[in-house]
C-alpha cells in the first residue's frame, strides 16, 4: 500500500460506540499514514467523518445568510448596491476532495481491518458523498472531468498529459451522478441516522431524483430558449431528446422514497398547521420529515444565524435583524380561501392617499394566508418563543378628512403611544440592527435559550433533503411526462398542500409547480437553482426597475391613532419600495447561468474548454 497521509483525528476506541452525531463531531488533528489509518477500523471511520465537514464548506445557515439577500427572498439591514449576479459565487470545483474520496476508497478496498460486509456501506457512503460533490460542481459549471476511482500521484518532472482529463458532457456528468447514487443505495443501510446527519440509502435515492430532475429540466427548457446555452462539445447543453428519460428516472427514484422509506410528511398538529410546518423543517426531535441534514450540536459545533436574525426587541447579543424578508416572497403564500389555489396574490391594503383598508389586529392580514407563511416568516403581531413580535413603522393619524402617516426613530412615542417600534421598519439606509421591510425570518430561528448568543450559538440544522421534496419531484416529473391532469402528479403535489393546510389542485400547471416549490422551500437553497434549471432567472430578474419581481418591496404596518374615529386602534399597511436601501433591481444575465472556468485551471489542463459567455 502506498505511503499517503491523512489528516485524521485520533479518537481511541470510543468512536465505534459513539452516536452518529458524535461520529460527525470529530476534528482532524494528526497526520497519519495510509497504513496507520486503514489498519484501524476506528480511524477508518474517523477519516470518513472528516468528509462531512469538507462537503459542507460555504453552505448555509452558519455563514451564508448573505446569499438570501441577492435573491428575491430577503435584504440585509444596511445599504447594498448589489445589482448584477456574481456568476462564480456558488461555484464548486474541488478535485482535491475528489482525490481524497478516491484515496479513501482505494485504502478501504485494500484493507483487511474490516470484512467485506463492513466495508460495503462505507464504500456506498463515500461514493454518495463524491456524487454530491460532483452534483454541486455540475450545476454550477456544467460537465467537468470525471476521474472515476483513479488516484493520481504527481512527481515533478513526469509527463502530466495522463493527468489531464477533458470535460465530460453535461449529460454524461448527470448520468454519472445518477448511476453512482443508484449503486451507493444498494450498498448503504436504509435505517435512519441520528439527527439525519449521516447519509443513508434514501439520501442516495433523493440525490438521484434531484439530479435527474435537474437534467430533465435542462434538456427541456434550455432547448426552448431562442438561442440555447451550449458549447460545441455539449459540455454545456443536454439534447432535448434526453428529457423524458431523466424525468422517468426522477419519478421512479422519488416514488421509491415515498413508498418504501421510513420517512413521511410530518403532520402531527392538524390544529396548528403553521407550527406543524415549522417543526417539520426545524425541530430535530422525533422528526419524520428530514432525510439528510447538515447538523450542528452544542458544544463545539454551533452557528450564529439565530443571533444575527432575532428581532431587535429580542436580541440576545450585539447583532440582530440582519435579514428583512421581502413582500415579494410573502405575497406568494396564497389565501386559504382563494378561488385560484396554487398561486399567490397581492394584499388588498388600499391607499393612505385614498381609502386605507383597516384591520383589527396587526396579524389579521396574514392569518388568512397559507399557514406555511407563519412557519417561515415573522410578520407584524406574530410570536416567537411565546412573545409578540411588534413591527410598527409609525402611526396613521386623522387630520380633517385626510389620513396622515407619522414615523419616528426606533422605540419612539407620539400621542402618548408607540410611534415606531424598536424592531422597525425604519426608513434609514444607514441604520443597522433594525428591520427594513416589515417582515423577519422565522424558519431556522432557534427558540433554544441562549441560542442567539455568541457564547452558545444555535444547533439548528440545515436540511438538504426532506420528504416534501420527494413528493414535489414526483409531481413535477409526472407533470412533465403526462400533463396537468395526471393523477400521479396531482396526488403528489396535493399531499404537500394538504399537509400545509391549503386547498387541493384539480389540474396542475407549470406555474403551480413554481409556486409550490417557492413557498415550501423558502430559504432552503432551492429558489436560485430552480430558476436556473427552468431557464427563468433572466426573465424574473431582468434588471428592469418597472418589474416588481426584479425589485424589492416591503409592507409597512401603521397603528391608527385617531381619537374618536371608529378605526382608532386598528392597523393599516402601505407597500414600500426598498430602493432607498437596495437601489438596483436584480439583474441576471445569460452569462450567469454557468460559472467561469478559472484561467489557472485552463492553463494547467489544455483539454478544458471555456463555458459560454466566458
Automatic annotation (TrEMBL):
Record carries keyword Signal: yes
All copies of domain SusD-like N-terminal, residue ranges: 76-212
Keywords: Cell outer membrane, Membrane, Signal
Keyword match Zinc: no
Main location: membrane
Subcellular location: Cell outer membrane
Domain RagB/SusD: 357-613
One Pfam family per UniProt: SusD_RagB
Similarity comment: Belongs to the SusD family.
Name by which UniProt lists this protein: RagB/SusD family nutrient uptake outer membrane protein
Species, as recorded: Olivibacter jilunii
Amino acid at each position: 500500500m502506498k505511503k499517503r497521509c491523512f489528516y485524521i483525528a485520533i479518537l481511541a476506541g470510543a468512536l465505534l460506540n459513539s452516536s452518529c452525531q458524535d461520529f460527525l463531531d470529530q476534528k482532524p488533528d494528526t497526520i497519519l499514514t495510509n497504513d496507520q489509518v486503514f489498519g484501524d477500523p476506528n480511524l477508518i471511520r474517523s477519516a470518513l467523518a472528516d468528509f462531512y465537514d469538507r462537503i459542507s464548506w460555504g453552505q448555509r445557515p452558519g455563514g451564508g445568510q448573505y446569499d438570501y439577500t441577492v435573491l428575491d427572498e430577503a435584504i440585509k439591514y444596511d445599504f447594498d448596491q448589489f445589482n448584477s449576479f456574481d456568476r462564480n459565487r456558488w461555484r464548486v470545483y474541488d478535485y482535491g476532495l475528489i482525490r481524497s474520496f478516491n484515496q479513501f476508497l482505494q485504502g478501504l478496498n485494500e484493507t483487511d481491518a474490516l470484512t467485506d460486509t463492513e466495508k460495503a456501506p462505507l464504500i456506498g457512503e463515500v461514493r454518495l458523498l463524491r456524487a454530491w460533490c460532483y452534483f454541486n460542481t455540475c450545476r454550477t459549471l456544467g460537465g467537468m472531468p470525471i476521474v472515476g476511482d483513479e488516484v493520481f500521484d504527481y512527481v515533478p518532472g513526469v509527463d502530466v498529459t495522463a493527468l489531464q482529463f477533458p470535460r465530460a458532457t453535461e449529460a454524461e456528468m448527470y448520468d454519472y451522478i445518477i448511476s453512482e447514487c443508484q449503486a451507493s443505495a444498494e450498498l448503504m443501510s436504509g435505517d435512519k441516522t441520528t439527527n439525519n446527519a449521516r447519509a443513508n440509502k434514501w439520501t442516495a435515492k433523493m440525490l438521484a431524483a434531484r439530479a435527474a430532475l435537474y437534467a430533465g429540466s435542462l434538456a427541456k427548457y434550455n432547448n426552448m430558449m431562442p438561442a440555447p446555452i451550449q458549447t460545441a462539445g455539449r459540455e454545456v447543453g443536454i439534447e432535448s431528446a434526453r428529457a423524458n428519460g431523466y424525468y422517468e428516472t426522477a419519478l421512479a427514484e422519488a416514488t421509491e422514497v415515498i413508498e418504501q422509506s421510513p420517512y413521511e410528511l410530518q403532520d402531527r398538529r392538524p390544529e396548528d398547521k403553521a407550527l406543524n410546518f415549522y417543526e417539520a423543517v426545524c425541530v430535530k426531535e422525533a422528526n419524520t420529515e428530514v432525510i439528510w441534514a447538515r447538523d450542528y450540536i452544542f458544544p463545539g459545533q454551533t452557528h450564529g444565524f439565530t443571533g444575527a436574525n432575532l428581532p431587535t426587541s429580542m436580541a440576545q447579543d450585539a447583532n440582530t435583524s440582519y435579514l428583512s424578508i421581502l413582500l415579494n416572497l410573502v405575497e406568494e403564500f396564497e389565501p386559504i380561501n382563494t378561488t385560484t389555489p396554487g398561486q399567490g396574490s397581492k394584499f388588498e391594503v388600499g391607499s393612505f392617499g385614498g381609502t386605507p383598508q383597516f384591520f383589527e389586529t396587526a396579524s389579521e392580514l396574514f392569518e388568512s394566508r397559507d399557514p406555511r407563511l407563519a412557519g417561515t416568516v415573522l410578520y407584524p403581531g406574530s410570536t416567537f418563543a411565546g412573545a409578540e413580535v411588534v413591527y410598527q413603522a409609525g402611526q396613521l393619524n386623522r387630520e380633517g378628512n385626510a389620513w396622515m402617516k407619522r414615523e419616528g426613530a426606533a422605540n419612539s412615542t407620539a400621542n402618548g403611544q408607540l410611534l415606531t417600534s424598536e424592531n422597525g421598519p425604519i426608513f434609514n439606509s444607514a441604520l443597522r440592527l433594525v428591520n427594513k421591510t416589515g417582515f423577519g425570518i422565522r424558519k431556522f430561528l432557534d427558540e433554544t435559550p441562549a441560542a442567539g448568543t455568541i457564547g452558545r450559538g444555535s444547533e439548528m440544522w440545515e436540511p438538504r433533503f426532506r420528504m416534501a421534496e420527494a413528493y414535489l419531484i414526483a409531481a413535477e416529473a409526472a407533470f412533465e411526462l403526462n400533463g396537468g391532469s395526471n393523477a400521479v402528479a396531482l396526488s403528489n403535489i396535493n399531499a404537500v398542500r394538504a399537509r400545509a393546510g391549503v386547498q387541493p389542485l384539480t389540474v396542475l400547471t407549470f406555474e403551480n409547480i413554481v409556486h409550490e416549490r417557492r413557498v415550501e422551500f423558502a430559504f432552503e437553497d432551492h429558489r436560485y437553482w430552480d430558476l436556473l434549471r427552468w431557464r427563468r432567472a433572466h426573465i424574473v430578474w431582468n434588471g428592469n426597475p418597472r418589474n416588481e419581481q426584479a425589485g424589492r418591496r416591503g409592507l409597512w404596518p401603521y397603528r391608527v391613532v385617531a381619537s374618536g374615529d371608529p378605526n382608532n386602534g386598528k392597523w393599516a399597511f402601505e407597500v414600500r419600495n426598498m430602493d432607498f436601501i437596495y437601489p438596483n433591481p436584480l439583474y441576471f444575465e445569460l452569462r450567469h447561468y454557468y460559472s467561469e472556468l478559472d484561467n489557472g485551471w485552463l492553463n494547467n489542463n489544455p483539454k478544458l474548454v471555456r463555458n459560454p459567455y466566458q
